[in-house]
């Protein structure tokens, strides 16, 4: 990609951006790793992150954990959940995990379906670990490179459509993942479901700011995905010290309502016991 094209697409500073914690590092280099990790994992919210992870920073400084494990701590944190899990639809959360942890966009419906099923069967931690402990992550970042946006360049195994898709998720370094046009809804759901490419809309255009962003379709059921799930949960009141009889409830929900139902149960103080596909 030429420099002029990269400038027009507002990605010049992101191409080849690689921050690695090498042996015999200095404190300045360590601080650069911290800043890069917070920016990559939390985006704009990263400016609020440093005071929340002093213990994790100390472990990395003392050689107790690797950069990879530091990233895992960030992505499994309550702060990451507050920023991206509780506030978004299930598919939007998966898109952001691909963006933050693998530096690319999901390519097709099989990737979305895999992570939806994984969360339903094994929970939040398993979902995060599936990115960080994947062969793709190891090949791209190893133990000591901070994840970065790879989707702007040709990468091994990358589908051509991935280049277009990353622009629906990356809207510039100063843009918030939770304040983009489209709100809590998926940015890629309809195009992925129809196996279609999306057009490239640059993060910004000279003199136009963000008005050049292409309209994003509001989230709707994925075409052909009519699966139903049974969610078994214990009713609220889990934090009370008063002895109460807690009833179990079973919800039958369609695929597109999974994320909203998870959040409703948690907000009422309930606990999800099991999620299984409805027969």
From TrEMBL:
<dbReference type="Pfam" id="PF01383">
    <property type="entry name" value="CpcD"/>
</dbReference>
<dbReference type="InterPro" id="IPR038255">
    <property type="entry name" value="PBS_linker_sf"/>
</dbReference>
<keyword id="KW-0605">Phycobilisome</keyword>
<keyword id="KW-0602">Photosynthesis</keyword>
<dbReference type="InterPro" id="IPR016470">
    <property type="entry name" value="Phycobilisome"/>
</dbReference>
<feature type="domain" description="CpcD-like">
    <location>
        <begin position="226"/>
        <end position="278"/>
    </location>
</feature>
<keyword id="KW-0793">Thylakoid</keyword>
<dbReference type="GO" id="GO:0030089">
    <property type="term" value="C:phycobilisome"/>
</dbReference>
<dbReference type="InterPro" id="IPR001297">
    <property type="entry name" value="PBS_linker_dom"/>
</dbReference>
<dbReference type="Pfam" id="PF00427">
    <property type="entry name" value="PBS_linker_poly"/>
</dbReference>
<keyword id="KW-0042">Antenna complex</keyword>
<keyword id="KW-0472">Membrane</keyword>
<dbReference type="InterPro" id="IPR008213">
    <property type="entry name" value="CpcD-like_dom"/>
</dbReference>
<comment type="similarity">
    <text>Belongs to the phycobilisome linker protein family.</text>
</comment>
<dbReference type="GO" id="GO:0031676">
    <property type="term" value="C:plasma membrane-derived thylakoid membrane"/>
</dbReference>
<feature type="domain" description="PBS-linker">
    <location>
        <begin position="1"/>
        <end position="178"/>
    </location>
</feature>
<protein>
    <submittedName>
        <fullName>Phycobilisome linker polypeptide</fullName>
    </submittedName>
</protein>
<dbReference type="GO" id="GO:0015979">
    <property type="term" value="P:photosynthesis"/>
</dbReference>
